[in-house]
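Hi F.,

I've been meaning to write this up properly since the lab meeting, where we talked about keeping a consistent format for the predictions we share between groups. The idea is simple: the sequence comes first, exactly as it goes in, then the structure tokens exactly as they come out, then a line or two of notes. No screenshots and no reformatting. I'm using this chain as the first example so we have something concrete to point to.
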Amino acid sequence: MIQHELGPGTMLVMMCETPLAERLTHVLDDLDVVGYTRFSGVSGIGATGRHEGTAVWPGTNTVILTFVTSDELVQAILRRNEQIIAEEYARRPGYRAFAIPAEALA
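Output, unedited:
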């Protein structure tokens, strides 16, 4: 059974074009991050355009949330994500990440 840590840490919120999401969750798995939540089929607009999942505005986004207690792990995740984007994409896909101080209570 997965054991979640309680106490202070960082809520890492990553938003990306859906095709990138699987690569980002592989990073979390490779770095032994204990759990994440993924919301797929999210619509929005940003620097790479509108993503509504329709014929007029194709494509969708994914939001990935995870809580980590190590600042070093947050930086490792972000570095690996940027490395994947730089090495595997000719055009930078939509991707934003936010590190929010948080406390796990339960």
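Notes:
The longest strand covers residues 7-17.
Helices lie at 18-30, 71-88.

If this format works for you, I'll send the rest the same way.

G.
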